[in-house]
Design goal:
single chain, 460 residues, alpha+beta, 7-stranded mixed sheet, 5-stranded mixed sheet, 13 helices, 24 strands, 30% strand, binds glycyl-adenosine-5'-phosphate
Length: 460
């Protein structure tokens, strides 16, 4: 591509530093990524709303997962099940009986804790008083509702705590209608609900959240553990392709004592958040546990019938279950940096906050501005350029003080900004500023589309 480069870099980065969670939450609110749910009534713990930029950010994360897990594969089919399911689903899955955390209350300050988050039961970590904590007692995490007009025990139903069960109970419907045989997978993205005892760390632990779950069914041919390992590697590659810093991601292999009794292997994908390591995704070899449980309770045949051998079997399940809200939070936290920069000409020091999103993840990919908002010909040209980009890119027109425009676009993570100036009117070239290097290239308008396509395409 022929570029006439005007590569003078007017600023020089001195240092960049990690941003704390409170500052990220403040930025997320200020710029329209994430708001507290029902804020005007004081909020409600564990529920969040995604603003104009956050809604797109979250959708981009989901699309990046979907592209990798469904679109680019011929062995995974998509699925979308209801949130409220027959209550026996949760009996079979074990959620009614054992999906509980142990809860502790402080009799003095009335604060509530998850027992496994406390170092000891001797004194309250919040008010510091000794001997005020209750004994731990189990608390079921499923959110209950009633279906139909009667609010009695026969009408009790649950908001699903995971999307996976919708896949398991439909296993036969799906493999027969999609004409799939193991090894093959079923993928679903959707809302899940858990009545967490202590929601917190921004959106990390919420009561309403979305999961991106892949359930991959394999035959009993001795390849199941290799398949599990392959999925761990595939998920590792996905995080790295979308720019998540590898030094902040680890793949923690659960020991036999740590994993559920039915799981033969489990790897938690963890990210180093500002408060420490936290789970993003759980990849598990679940054997035949889930389908067996539904076969037993429903009395229905969910086995796979293999035409070739004329035999039936319950396939082995490999699960990769990621949180969409947590992955979105990781994209935000990982992208966010504060830089101290020096203007090479004046020597003046300034700070900028920048979100270094991957171009596929960035809510806005291209900002377009006129050099001056009171010059009708510049404004008109900038608006035309932006309108022409819009069908192909997530673009945005803005106008105002140039320094402030760049600052705002850096803060929302826009990878490229196009400036329309007098030279544009004279020779048709425009400047394209790169968010990360702050370097500006002069690109001719007929090459602009190819220039941007090259730099924003999905990773391979
Ligand atoms: N079907 C398996 C399953 O649900 P999980 O480890 O309980 O496994 C999978 O959940 C992922 O769902 C977690 O790794 C996390 O990303 C997300 N998740 C779970 N609870 C969450 C919560 N309270 N808030 C936000 N995300 C949550």
């Amino acid at each position: 591509m022929q570029l006439s480069a005007n590569a003078s870099r007017v600023t020089q980065e001195v240092a960049s530093s990690r941003v704390g969670l409170d500052e990220i939450a403040a930025l997320a609110k200020r710029r329209g990524f994430i708001f507290q749910s029902s804020e005007i009534y004081g909020g409600i713990g564990g529920f969040w709303d995604y603003g104009p930029l956050g809604a797109v950010l979250k959708r981009n994360v989901r699309d990046a997962w979907w592209r990798e897990i469904v679109t680019l594969r011929d062995d995974v089919v998509p699925f979308d099940s209801s949130i409220v399911m027959h209550p026996l689903t949760w009996k079979a899955s074990g959620h009614i009986d054992v999906f509980a955390d142990r809860m502790v209350d402080c009799r003095n300050c009335k604060h509530r804790f998850r027992a496994d988050h406390l170092a000891s039961l001797e004194k309250c970590p919040d008010c510091g008083m000794a001997g005020t904590l209750t004994q731990p007692r189990p608390f079921n995490l499923m959110l209950k509702t009633f279906v139909g007009p009667m609010e009695d025990s026969s009408a009790v139903a649950y908001l699903r705590p995971e999307t996976a069960q919708g896949i398991f109970v439909n296993f036969k419907n799906i493999y027969q209608s999609a004409r799939k045989k193991p090894p093959f997978g079923i993928a679903q993205v959707g809302k899940s609900f858990r009545n967490e005892i202590t929601p917190g760390n921004f959106t990390f632990r919420s009561r309403e959240f979305e999961q991106m779950e892949l359930e991959y069914f394999v035959p009993h041919d001795g390849q199941d553990m290799a398949c599990f390992r392959a999925w761990v590697e595939a998920r590792k590659a996905w995080y790295s392709k979308y720019g998540v810093r590898p030094e902040r991601v680890r793949f923690y292999e659960l020991s036999p004592e740590e994993r559920p009794h039915y799981a033969q292997a489990c790897v938690d994908v963890e990210y180093e958040f500002p408060w420490g390591w936290g789970e993003l995704e759980s990849i598990a070899h679940r054997g035949t546990y889930d389908l067996d449980a539904h076969i037993k309770l429903s009395g229905k045949d969910l086995t796979f019938f293999d035409e070739a051998s004329k035999s039936k079997y319950v396939p082995i399940l490999i699960e990769a279950s990621a949180g969409l809200d947590r992955t979105t939070l990781v994209m935000l936290v990982d992208a966010c940096e504060q830089e101290t920069i020096i203007d090479e000409e004046s020597g003046k020091e300034s700070k900028r906050t920048v979100l270094r999103f991957h171009p596929q993840i960035a809510p806005v990919q291209i900002g377009v501005f006129p050099l001056a908002r009171n010059k009708a010909d510049l404004v008109e040209r900038a608006q035309t350029v932006e309108r022409e980009l819009r069908p192909y890119f997530r673009s945005q027109y803005d106008e105002g003080n140039v320094g402030q425009l760049y600052r705002r676009q850096d803060e929302i993570g826009t990878p490229f900004c196009i400036m329309i100036d007098y030279q544009t009117l004279a020779d048709g070239t425009l400047t394209v500023r790169d968010r990360d290097s702050m370097k500006q290239d002069r690109v001719s308008q007929d090459q602009l589309h190819a220039f941007l396509t090259e730099r924003t395409r999905p990773p391979t």
